[in-house]
Design a protein that fits this description.
This protein is an alpha/beta fold. The strands form 3 sheets. Strands 7, 8, 9, 10, 11, 12 and 13 form a 7-stranded mixed β-sheet that branches. Strands 3-2-1-4-5-6 form a 6-stranded parallel β-sheet, with helices on both faces. A hairpin with a 3-residue loop joins strand 11 and strand 12. Helix 1 crosses helix 12, helix 4 packs parallel to helix 5 and helix 5 packs parallel to helix 10. The longest helix is centred in the C-terminal third of the chain and has 21 residues. The chain is elongated, with a radius of gyration of 24 Å. It binds NADP nicotinamide-adenine-dinucleotide phosphate. The site of NADP nicotinamide-adenine-dinucleotide phosphate (NAP) has 24 residues, from helix 1.
Length: 434
Amino acid sequence: MQEVNVGIIGLGNVGSGTLAILTENAEQIGLKLGFPLRVKALCSRSIGVKRRQKVMDSVLRTEDWREVVAHPEVDIVAELVGGTTVAREIIDAAIAHKKSVVTANKELMALCGAEIWDRAIAAGINLAMEASVAGGIPIHTVLREGISGDRVTTLYGILNGTSNYILTEIEKHGSSFDDVLKEAQRLGYAEADPSADVDGYDARSKLAILAALAFGEKITPSDIYTEGIRRILPLDFQYAHKLGHTIRLICGAHQTPSGLILSVRPALIPQATILAGVQGAYNAVWVRGKYGADTFYYGRGAGASPTGVAVVSDLMRVAREIRCGSPERVSPFAHERLGEYKPIPVTLQHSAYYLRFRVVDRPGIIASLAGVLAGKQISLEAVLQLPSDNRQDLPFVITVEPTSEQSLREALGEMSAHDFLVEPPFAMPMEKSL
Ligand SMILES: NC(=O)c1ccc[n+]([C@@H]2O[C@H](COP(=O)([O-])OP(=O)(O)OC[C@H]3O[C@@H](n4cnc5c(N)ncnc54)[C@H](OP(=O)(O)O)[C@@H]3O)[C@@H](O)[C@H]2O)c1
């Protein structure tokens, strides 16, 4: 059968991983497809100084992405540049040229994926974005195909490998956030500017995409309450362990009778739950369906090869559809709105909470904090204090029974006025067994 041709734009981590797999694994890929999948054009700004991959001389090598998109023999454009400006232009131009697109771009798809999908459908081309969330885990395919017959009620993910690496290193070695971050940067696990990872923005883009796929709703990053991991101290793990829990940056989407609550935030999760076993830079997604109950997906969240596999598999899927005739499709982002999955504020969430205080010790502190909680109808569950000699910065923890986040925030606001606090109280939800 006649070959399908690919143009790759962006030869960084993901682009070079993709190219390596396409060339090294070409024979297997051809056998699986029943026809060859060929690289026809390569583009990157510094293509001249890029190590020359083993590609045939007939492959176009260019610094100008427009040449790839306009190339008459390129059937599928792989956008592996990233960001929301040039990447958007590349995808728009590919759609205008009626070329199918494969992208790994979570940021762009989270911001305007629904709109891009609508245009792709109108143009009769295909769009695939498996690599945009949880690199090596085929979670898009799971949600769009594998369990698409179910009705998802809850989705939890660990979707940022850098944050998970930092948290599990703090947990294992008791080192501070700053020290672990520096080590992660030295090892290349964290960017020089780590904000997107440790402040939760990268995970937020991924959750926006996954929640859209899981619930068939148009969800944007601004619908998601986001909090990073900078305030986590080694002692939070000590207290969490005493409570039979650990701490992870949890991306959560769960359906309530009034709508969808979406958040990316550090949370206590029971040590016995399967998500607690996710260590280092790994990612995981746990999904509960109304009919099929629980399923769990685990793998590498990033890296040239795992993400390259996701891109190549997308290229194969799109190539198959090009050869066999592309079926009419429905955008994964927004079915006709049913209303039941409308995002609602996180302040409507009900949960048990872990509250950690650092105080200048003096009598009556617990009584005054308990008084604030009682004033908001919040029931105190336990008070924990590990031995410490530092009376000027004495940590302790209060756990409270399930309450609304709104009441909790009001209580924290009142507590913050107390002059015995070294810093504002730090709160994390305590998730039930997942
Ligand atoms: N890294 C991962 O593990 C991973 C995992 C999942 C998803 N992703 C997503 O994959 C995408 C790519 O990430 P990456 O880590 O591979 O990025 P990267 O290493 O920074 O690579 C980006 C590439 O795009 C090229 N580029 C940038 N602007 C260009 C332009 N105007 N014209 C032509 N080429 C241009 C760069 O060329 P030069 O090198 O010549 O400057 C470089 O080759 C992003 O959307 C990212 O979010 C990455």
